[in-house]
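Why do we care about 3D structure at all? Because function follows from shape, and shape follows, mostly, from sequence. That is the central idea of this module. The next example makes it concrete: a single protein chain, its amino acid sequence, and then its structure expressed as tokens.
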Amino acid sequence: MLRVRQESARDCQENNGNHYLCIAAEGSKQNPCNPRHPRSKQIRGIQKMVSNFPPVSKAEWLNQIAKDLKGRPMEELLWTRPDGAVVTPFVHADDFQEPPAALTAAPNTWEICEEIRVFAPVSANRQALDALEGGAEGLCFVLDAPLDATGFAQMLDGIYLDFIGLHFAGKAVDANPGIFLAQLESLAAQKGLATSALRGSLAYDPVPVSSVVDWRYLADLIEFCRDKFPQFKLIRVSSAADTPLKDTLQHANTYLTKLSEKGLSVAEIARVMEFSIAIGKSYFVEIARLRALQLIWLNALQAWKAPLELPAISVQYQPETYTDELYTNMIRATTMAMSAVQGGASRLTVLPYDAGREAGAKYPATFSRRIARNVQHLLKMESALDAVSDPAAGSYYIETLTRQLASDAWGTL
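And the structure:
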């Protein structure tokens, strides 16, 4: 039977402070974190404050709920997920044998990214510079056709390549991912930059596109980047909002299996992989879905006997989540961004509220793009969601959803 286990304090130190919850076939006794941890004093202060409130048992809560329902059955509050699983809206501390712990002790940092569709290098460059001046931390260039060396340089003109995340996507990447690394290497040499200082990704995901994958080519690409581009993600495992987690994991495991057959270690393969997740509108479920993905990925690495490392997760919106009510989209963009951030996104691209509906907008596209960036600025600078570790940890409802989604996905593999 699958159980959730927490790494010991010793394991926590050996993993550089990363404190993982993993789904494993066997449980282990929970050990407290190192009391010398820099946050231990804050934790003790919170515990002291909470101790002023008397504990309320689950039975007492259920009695109060029964009174509030005024004779209506508790079952009316249950709801069913699209996959058929039944979810209760009430979860209590008594439902946990041990208090839930955070997935990691590291700060919840993520990259504010903006997508730029490249129709002409000069106009794409103008939008890129505008995005950076507005506070973007990463740029994702979407290209249907590759650029020549001159066009590639024009697209990145005036951009400090070693200061931001550089991401490339589109049909051109699917057709020839290596050309982007070659052009980036050449441009970096012209600017006197070491390619090892550059970070970014290629949206290269050949498994669902072609029935015949050149695994030797992909293995060579990973070996080439081992020293040249060590901070680049080369494989993007794409997943739609309605894709079951088990399918996403099987998709990722295909890369681990096929590339390890080419002589690469699972640890090296995992290090160049990134999950690209399209997020939906269900606030709590999306938080739990991202957290569950991290759990089952850690469990997969454990099954491969590879070092445990949380996956890189790039989150974006599907256009179908927006409606013709543009201001509704603006609010929806905010709640979806909160789901992504609290779920553990490494990079987030917020879709402008008028995307695909520019003709009905009252303001220019520069305004909607600025609002999309500012959503993330508010989550960082006002809400400080980047300053805490695993913000959703400890919420009994979200923890229960997380474990249910993870257990369901792992149990059906």
